[in-house]
Amino acid sequence: MTLLELDAVRASYGKVQVLQDVSLSVPDGGAVGILGANGAGKTTTLRAISGTVNVRGRITFDGIDITRSGPEKVASLGIAHVPEGRGTLPNLSVRENLRVGAYLRKDRRGIAQDIDFVLELFPHLERRIGQNASTLSGGEQQMLAIARAFMAKPRLLVLDEPSLGLAPSTSQDVYDSIQRLRDESGIAMLVVEQNANLAFRIVESATVLETGHSVLSGTVEELKGRDEIRKAYLGG
Ligand SMILES: Nc1ncnc2c1ncn2[C@@H]1O[C@H](COP(=O)(O)OP(=O)(O)OP(=O)(O)O)[C@@H](O)[C@H]1O
Ligand SMILES: [Mg+2]
């Protein structure tokens, strides 16, 4: 079953149209990547899904048309977005950040269980549980942002360049955490990355964006077999 579907999506900032024709779908429980160069429209595609830019075309989630839904409605339907640059609450502790992630939930026991679950998956965070988020390293902040989004108990986790600004070994650590989260929870993911070697560790298929168009999509095996993908995104 398809969980999320974008069909011929267009989006603009003011008069400037940035997305021209983006189509992609995420199966229920699947993991899909979005690849593309700087400025291709990857972040804007995620904003279109989250309801923070004006969109034409059609976006459906779990069969519901969310094309014109605002961010609160989209979040309440079960889409959690970890934006570029992370956005943890710097003056709250790791534990408090995780609690904030669950603020729409009422199931206190489920929240406590999920905090234990994410701390087991993210041992870096467990070691820093009482520290303010502002004192965490960049990689730890990224892990916290992902764990916090998961605390909302979403059906789809949307991640915008989790490796941005991180050293290669730290990026690997962050992707190890994402992989564990996916393996252990089975949650669906939509992951934007410029580094396909990282994205291909966790996604089953991907879409390539160029200047606001989705120009190519396929399974990881299909994409790895294409020269233009190897040259542009896999380092040769
Ligand atoms: N708030 C905004 N107002 C006006 N133009 C914007 C805004 N945000 C992005 N753009 C423009 O939209 C285009 C696509 O930007 P977007 O951020 O979606 O690209 P991206 O693929 O995420 O790039 P990057 O890899 O650098 O993060 C760019 O030309 C950018 O300058
Ligand atoms: Mg971006």
TrEMBL record:
Domain of life: Bacteria
Gene3D superfamilies from the UniProt entry: P-loop containing nucleotide triphosphate hydrolases
InterPro entries, per database record: AAA+_ATPase, ABC_transporter-like_ATP-bd, ABC_transporter-like_CS, BCAA_Transport_ATP-bd_LivF, P-loop_NTPase
Pfam families according to UniProt: ABC_tran
Molecular function terms from GO: ATP binding; ATP hydrolysis activity; branched-chain amino acid transmembrane transporter activity
Coiled-coil regions listed: none
One GO biological process term: L-amino acid transport
CDD domains in the record: ABC_TM1139_LivF_branched
Keywords, comma-separated and alphabetical: Amino-acid transport, ATP-binding, Nucleotide-binding, Transport
Domain ABC transporter residue range list: 4-236
Protein name: ABC transporter ATP-binding protein
Provenance organism: Microbacterium faecale
